[in-house]
Amino acid sequence: MGVNIASGIFGVLIIFLLAALFGIAWSGISLFVALNTKNQHLTVQTKNFLGKIVSERYLMNIIFEFVKKPFANGLASTFADYNII
User: Fold this and answer.
1) Contact residues for 34 (Cβ-Cβ < 8 A; gap 6+)
2) Out of 25, 29, 41, 70, which residue is the most buried by the measure of CB atoms under 10 Å away?
3) CA 26 → CA 29, 33, 49, distances in Å?
4) How many Cβ atoms are within 10 Å of 43's Cβ, its own excluded?
5) CB–CB of 60/79 below 8 Å?
6) pLDDT class of 60 with cuts at 50, 70, 90
7) In 10 A of CB 53, how many CB atoms?
8) Triad 61, 66, 70: Cα angle to 5°
9) Looking at residue 51, what is its pLDDT?
């Protein structure tokens, strides 16, 4: 098991560049809310709310890559029906 970057060092640099751009865009959301509302509590709540949505959606999808549908039951099986991956 391992990772091979087919495009070499240029591909690695592109991955780092995309990660940096994503980080800049993600922090820009909180910065936009902070500058427009001038409300510290709303800024923190917005960041936490968006972070929770993204992390829960990501974790919900990644969990069913390891736990297949026949082994899931109840609500987990329903989530597996709507899994986008």
Assistant:
1) 40, 43
2) 29
3) 6, 12, 13
4) 19
5) yes
6) low
7) 10
8) 95
9) 77
User: What type of residue is 7?
Assistant: S
In one letter, which amino acid is 11? G
Q: Which two tokens stand for residue 52?
A: 């929770």
pLDDT in tens, 15-49: 899 989 988 888 888 888 889 998 988 888 888 88
At 5, give phi and psi (nearest 5°). Answer: -85, 110
Gyration radius (Cα) of the chain, Å? 18
Q: Could you count the other beta carbons within 10 Å of the beta carbon of residue 57?
A: 11
Compute the Cα dihedral for 68, 70, 73, 75 and give only its sign: positive
Among residues 55, 54, 84, 83, the alpha carbon closest in space to that of 69 is found at 83
Q: How far is CA 7 from the centre of its chain?
A: 24
pTM: 0.50
